[in-house]
Amino acid sequence: MFGWTETLVPVIGQGTWNMERDRASSIAAIRRGLDLGMTHIDTAEMYGNGKVEDIVGEAIAGRRQEVFLVSKVLPDNASRQGTMTACERSLRRLRTDCLDCYLLHWPSRHRLADTIAAFEQLVRDGKIKTWGVSNFNEDRVAEAVRIGGPNRVACNQVLYLLEERTVEHHILPICERQQIAIVGYSPFGQGRFRSHPVLEEIARARGATPRQVALRFLVRHPSVFTIPKAGRVDHVEENARAGDLPLTEEEIRRIDEAFPAGRPRRRHLPTL
Ligand code: NAP
Fold first, then answer.
1. Of 5, 40, 81, 186, which one's alpha carbon is 20 to 30 angstroms from that of 216?
2. Ligand 1: residue whose CA is nearest its atom 17
3. Which domains does the chain have, with CATH numbers?
4. Atom of ligand 1 nearest to the CA of 44
């Protein structure tokens, strides 16, 4: 768990991309995840063209208070007025009157200042509690902080899996300095997870699975979250158990060696 404003947010949450493919199974999986404490639910207006928000709305009906609910505005809709309207649509589909966090899905052709102005208006209106960004590199994070001011950008949601650790070089340190949470997406490579002897050895020693070891490694920094998507109850159950898995420094070192983060690009970092 991590203090994200006043709320405790579990470090392993639930992604929802493509959940429109099997509505009943997805709803059962989300609910089981809530039972197991995976109360951080990530969705977006883009997913299934709104169908996934509707599925999430049904899954969490009657349990809204348990959930840390995140959705995202599509960049094409992220003008000042467009963001306000998109948020209203998402709230309706999610059957709630407030989001815990609202993100810009990726950098937009609209002025970031306009999107942020809309986010701040939504906070004042009580429609969202916090806002953040997604797929922002270090320069864009710096721009968001300059426009929004200190302690306004709650998180940056970025690709983060064992085979793709680029965010660790520049984005993670800058976000940590600014107290911006990193929410890593596609921790299983969108279903292309491949095990490794090191993951298997650690898993065997701990009575766990290689996926659980992978998830636990990904949330080893206190400001990093992960949001695997599982549309099956057994998958959710496996993922949920990763939250309690202890990893020693030595185990972390071995995984780090097996899945090297690569070399950082040389560059001038934005000053923040
Ligand atoms: P992912 O979580 O890396 O992989 C999902 C796939 O892994 C599904 O096929 C799922 O199968 C399978 N899976 C999950 N747990 C499993 C388990 N324990 N055993 C076996 N298979 C398992 O991919 P993702 O959906 O791309 O990423 C996660 C979430 O991040 C998304 O759903 C979305 O919420 C978010 N995301 C955000 C962005 C962005 O631009 N901000 C981009 C991509 C993703 P089943 O469904 O059959 O269980």
1. 5
2. 235
3. 2-195+214-245 (3.20.20.100)
4. 34
